[in-house]
Amino acid sequence: MPEMFLRRLSRWQAEQQREAVADLYVEARRGTAGAEYDIRQDFLHRFERDVQQTDFDMVVAEAGALLGCLYGYRAERGSEWWEVMRSVLSPAAFERTTAGRVFLLSELMVVPAERGSDVARRLRTLLLTRHTSDVVVAVIQPDDDQGREVLQSWDWTKLGEFTHQREGWLRPPSPLP
Q1: Hey, which residues does 60 pair with through a beta bridge?
Q2: CA 41 distance to own-chain centroid
Q3: 2 Cβ neighbours under 8 A, 6+ residues apart
Q4: Who contacts 101 (Cβ-Cβ below 8 Å, separation ≥6)?
Q5: Are strands 135-140 and 166-170 parallel, antiparallel or unpaired?
Q6: What is the pTM of this model?
Q7: Model confidence at 176, in pLDDT bands (50, 70, 90)?
Q8: What is d(CA 153, CA 147) in angstroms, rounded to the nearest whole number?
Q9: Would you give the DSSP letter of residue 25?
Q10: Which contiguous run of DSSP H or E holds residue 106?
Q11: Ranges of H-type helices in the chain
């Protein structure tokens, strides 16, 4: 296999790569046969909204083709996520959000052949080295078993359901290893 490279994409580059990222998303989610179109359309709709968020940031892993992708953005004070976090975070964790530095990891995807390798951790490390957030929260779909396994392996804490389609996970307060 060719050497893997990690790179950060600007908002413009991310938008230019939207079809390739959507392909990666469908491959990483490999769900019910025949549901790929709906899965892809739902992702593209969320991606279009997410890429416009404040401090959107995205990293990808490549080795001739996309192997993985992680992106997120800063939760704006007063946004829907902010209000949801108020009801889900402990008072001590919410207190740390007063500076307004809350970063949401919105999507993590890794091709099935690379699961169990170091791709997800390397993507996380690269993405979060740029952000000096007091609180980092990952949001995943409740049926995302791979995402849940990754977050558990990182020692993140499940916060609960943010909405009927998303559950939240909190990064431990200690710095990244």
Answers
A1: 7, 69
A2: 18
A3: 63, 64
A4: 74, 131, 132, 133, 134, 135
A5: antiparallel
A6: 0.85
A7: very low
A8: 10
A9: H
A10: strand 102-110
A11: 11-16, 18-29, 36-50, 80-88, 91-95, 119-128, 145-153
pLDDT category, 13, cuts 50, 70, 90?
very high
pLDDT tens digits, residue range 144-166?
888 888 999 999 988 877 766 77
Distances in Å between the Cα of 132 and the Cα atoms of 27, 74, 99, 106, 164 are 32, 10, 11, 17, 29
Give residue 61's region: left, alpha or beta (phi > 0; psi -120 to 50): beta
Q: How far apart are CA 17 and CA 4, in angstroms?
A: 18
| Mean pLDDT calculated for residue range 30-38 | 68
Residue 58 pLDDT grade (very low, low, confident, very high; cuts 50, 70, 90): very high
Which residues lie across from 170 on neighbouring strands?
Answer: 137, 157
Q: Which two tokens stand for residue 122?
A: 């390397």
* Residue 99 tokens, joined: 């500076």
Which residues does 173 contact at the CB level (< 8 Å), separation at least 6? none
Residue with tokens 């390798």: 117
C-alpha distances out from residue 168 to 18, 36, 91, Å: 24, 25, 16
